[in-house]
Design brief:
The chain has 72 residues and is mostly helical. The protein has one helix spanning 2-34, and strands spanning 50-52, 58-59, 68-70. The radius of gyration is 24 Å and the shape is elongated.
Length: 72
């Protein structure tokens, strides 16, 4: 039982490292296929204008407390 536990503790980091390496390679390949044109993309959140009805100000940041709503 002692050898089984020690072998498991030795193999677990190795498996974790191999899975991490595979994940990093997969992310690299997806980024390679997708391309590197992130600078020219327009994100859909860039066009959202939120209006604070209490102060009358326009804020591009969405607040989670419900103060802002999208102004039509």
């Amino acid at each position: 039982m002692k050898y089984l536990k020690m072998s498991f503790l030795a193999i677990l980091p190795l498996i974790t490292c191999v899975l991490n390496t595979c994940w990093q390679i997969l992310l690299f390949l997806v980024d390679l296929i997708d391309g590197g044109d992130e600078d020219t993309e327009n994100f859909p959140t860039d066009n959202n204008v939120r209006y604070n009805y209490r102060t009358g100000d326009i804020d591009p940041v969405k607040r989670l407390d419900g103060l802002y709503a999208n102004k039509p």
